[in-house]
Amino acid sequence: MLNYSRPALAAILVALAGVTLWTANDSQAGSETARCEITSTVNGGMIALTGQAAATPDVSGTYRLTVKGSGTNGSTNISQGGRFTTSAEGTATLGTMMLTSSGAVYEADLTIAIGSETRSCSETFGGRI
Question: Which domain does 17 fall in, by range?
Fold first, then answer.
């Protein structure tokens, strides 16, 4: 049987507790790195809305990108989605929608799911561009 003094035993327990907390925080940190973004590019009379995901490299997930809007030329209600895998750099371009930019206002929503983690982002685009 090993005999440890109380201070030595306390130090060992504190060290083990620190390793346990560090491991738990490290596994949670990986899930907090997933994020989504919706970007826009205007070219001529068109606006391109692109959904993007960023996470750890080579991870797979699903996405849903929806755009609703209205302007002088009518209304828009588009939804697209599917599977994606991030690149070695940890990014993925999810989908691009080309829309008229002639005064229309668009509400874009993007949701990504990686494992049990879900992230969402929303942006408003358009108006007088």
Answer: 1-32
